[in-house]
Predict the structure.
Amino acid sequence: MRLDLFLKKVLIIKRRTLAQELIKSGRVFVNGNIAKAGKDIKEGDIITFPLRRRRLTIKVKEIPKGNVKKGDELNYYEVLKEETIDG
């Protein structure tokens, strides 16, 4: 599944276009490398990105097959690290 679609499907980012803009800014990393929106995400991948005034590092637990219901999103990823961004 594409990175931008994964971030939208698991309810981290509300709209895919917003996910694409964030990724295009060069601040989203997959397994330590700057990512592109079309990057294929697999189970076990580590994604790091800024979100609001935080920097999140998540581990992909499972790729969703369809839409994810609110409250079920943590079945698909695990938050490994959450840092506050100064500014």
Q: What stands out?
A: The first helix runs from residue 3 to 9. The chain has one domain: 3-84. The longest strand covers residues 77-84. The chain has two helices and five strands.
